[in-house]
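Issue: copy button drops trailing tokens. Both records pasted manually instead:
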Amino acid sequence: MMHLFINSLAASAGGGLTYIRNVVPDLAATPDLRLTVALSPGLRQHFGDLTNVVFVESQASSFRRFWYEQVELRRLIRRSRADILLSAGNFALRDSPVPQILLSRNSIYTSPDFYCDLRARHEYKTWLDTHARAVLAKRSIRWADVTVAPSEAFAAELLRWTGVNVVSIHHGFDQEAFTRDSTPLRAEVEEQINLAKGSLKLLFVSHYNYYRNFETLFRALPLLREFLPGRSVKLLLTCKLAAGENPGVYHPEAAATLVKELGVADMVTELGAIPYTQLHHLYRRADVYVTPAYTETFAHPLVEAMASGLPIVASDLPVHREICSDAALYFPRFSPQDLAAQIAELASSRETQERMVKAGSGRAAGFSWKKHTAELLALARSLLATAA
């Protein structure tokens, strides 16, 4: 029996939270596998009664967490008698007492666009902090026995960055689990969506951050009025553009000001955070999924959108093409004009919509959490055999 220790202390929002929420139950159901999971206290509630999993809860700030991981976590791993360490938060344990698999899934460390964006916003503290984290992330890839990326495109990017070969294992999707919760959306959210009835409803699932490139999307909205005269367009956001409403260090106030300056406040609906288990209700109410992100590693919402029958308009990134293929229309990542033109083309062609929905259904079916965990465990067993 193999004992896997998962360090998921960094999982708090976005893709990291989606990953842990889906992978831990699948691993817990695997025969001949013991599981210990280190996580923040707020995350424990998502796993219910997984009695065959030992959860180790720890609350710490990011820098204190790094110290905790490098010192205290080492003791916990030895004490648990684990065979393999899975570091799920971009940073590896140096001199791990057991073979270590690192999951690297944060592309801002390798993105020139992100550093340029921070300088343009005069976010020099975040710029320095990101550079410092990038140094640790780069060293972590060398500290780990194997590094895993969630897409081939990002694995290739990490190879260029570090010179170290990285394994690509796609993240997954579970249609049944994703749509299992029948709890309706909050009444105020339902009311906001109902106000958009009859409009072309664009959906973007993300809390506010800089690398998701909200501003390019906002600048495309007044152009859509020109491209689709007489047609109402509503952009549904799963965040609020206000201070304190989003995780992380990102400041949405300038984006909120931009919406007003562009005169598109009537086109933007800020729904606020939607529980992951209820997102399927929102996808089904939308007409087009759109993402203008300028850097990405996998993008779970793209798979969720394809599985929900939505055509997609996405920034032209290698990762987006790898995930969506023919199920999306693409545009240069900083071009509001091309973004608006692609949305207008899609909205004006029923044939294109049907073709993309069909392609998306086939693409989504190829992503599976069970397949992901099976490949991850095969890698772990290979490492263990080599170590033995």
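Record 2 (pasted manually too):
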Amino acid sequence: MAGVKPASRATAFLLLAAANLLWSGNWVAGRALRGAYDPFTLNFGRWAVATLALAPFALPQLRGQWPVIRRSFGLLLLLAFAGVALFQGLVYLGLRTTTAVNGLLINSSMPLFMILCSLALEHERPTARQIAGMLVSLAGIAAIVSHGEPASLLHLEVRPGDGWILLAMPIWGVYSVLLRRRPAALGGVPFLFVLCVLGVLLLVPALALEALRSPPRPPTPAQAAAIVYMGVGASVIAFLCWNQGVSVVGANAAGFTIHLLPAFGTLLAIALLGESFGVYHAVGIATILAGVLLATRQRLRTSPR
């Protein structure tokens, strides 16, 4: 990381913010489709769309790359299992039985798990500024989900899906930390394509078992549009942004941008679902942004020029 310029790091944080914006739409779509498809069938459809979208661009770049893939196959398979097959499957599973408010709160714990995973796998310790920034952002999230009344957080109902989403958090932490070990010879598009192919193959057994239990049915136009968005926007574009951003700033710093997810989700709910915008929304979003800036500002300042 010694040769990374501040401008490139600033761009990396913009890419990470874009990934969170796209992922916030994925949570909305996943919740909307919870009754139409089982979680792992939905996840298979998402990544099948992503694979098809990437193929025309990735396949020409993969010529002559088989030795690189073979040398790093174990790492690539682990990344595909964690980031493609398992993480989002558990999130979709959780969204079937938990509320959006609980999901936002649990997802906001991800930076903590990324810090722990960075410490365990890379021996990277968080700074005091990063810890403070995480706490400030959590205060902003609490302001949004409590509608400006913190005491209401004591009355949140715990549901079975909460456990599945909580289980998904350290899995994403492992994925993000291991991204630093990705083979440098594989560019962003072919790298993501390989993960998509491996992830789809890993999801085939779950898809087959579900097909035996309940034959799949074709999606409606609205459902198809949502799955295409999940496959192209929330998978291809968002993962390219995230993977590139993490490769520049590291998992610890990138993890704090996850707190942008509930802020973006709130704005999408207001824009798409007609929910009202209250003072607590403005206070919460401003606090979240302040926490993210606090956690990452020092890293931008101290980067070698």
